[in-house]
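pipeline: protein-struct stage 2 | run 1193 | C2 domain-containing protein
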Amino acid sequence: MTRYQLSMHAEHLPRNWFHTPSPYAVATITDGPLKGTKIGQTETLPKTTDPDWVAVLFFETDSSIYMPLKIQVFDEREYNDDILLGEATFEATEIFGAAGHLKSAQLNYKGPAQLYVSVQTSIQGNDRGIMELQFRGLDIKNIEPGLLGLGRSDPFLELAKKNADHTAGVVRWNVVHRSAHIQDHLNPFWESFTVGLEELCYNDLNWPMRILVKDWQANGRHRIIGQFETTMSNLMERVAVRGNADRQAAFEIFLDSLGGSSGKSKGFVCVLKATLYPEK
């Protein structure tokens, strides 16, 4: 049996003039010896029609085992029962065998909503442990000045891992952590967090990672301020040693993750913590 991890995102979920959905997804096995088993459920993302869920769902199977999946997408309602926005069916090993280990299907309702499901081999390295991380932004570019120039960006940070199938020319970055946004602040401290290496980087500290800083928008249409590419090993080597504003150790961010595009700096991300603890 091989251990896999499943991640999901969707596009063009239904909305109207009065309501934007707060979607979450549920994955269930619908046939075979594990029929009816719920693999897991994502977090709810508030007010978005294009959710990119952070949650990673783990399961074990063999290429010879038929494992059909039903993915249901719901709109979480605060005062009423959650509403089913649509569902789609997949087969786990077919997803893994597809180009980029990614398949999509239209949700079964009248509209253009599309659901994307990725299945990746879960363990691809020999590193083990739990990583504790904390970041701070420094001199983050203000892209929300407002009418009188008094506004400030509301930055949040995303950490994503690279999934690439070079034979098919498919590359996607799966978000594995998304911080809370910090209102009106260009030098934000984001809360520390812990995550297992299997979920974070397939147990490989040298796996390609990307860090993005975005400006939060109430309508869910968040805007990228800047980004850079790295590895967990590199983050561990660049932890701040000269206080929490250590620009010498910090990573400079650009609109293009490789420092291209206009080439203008959009600020810095300072690594305050990158500590690996043994698994319990």
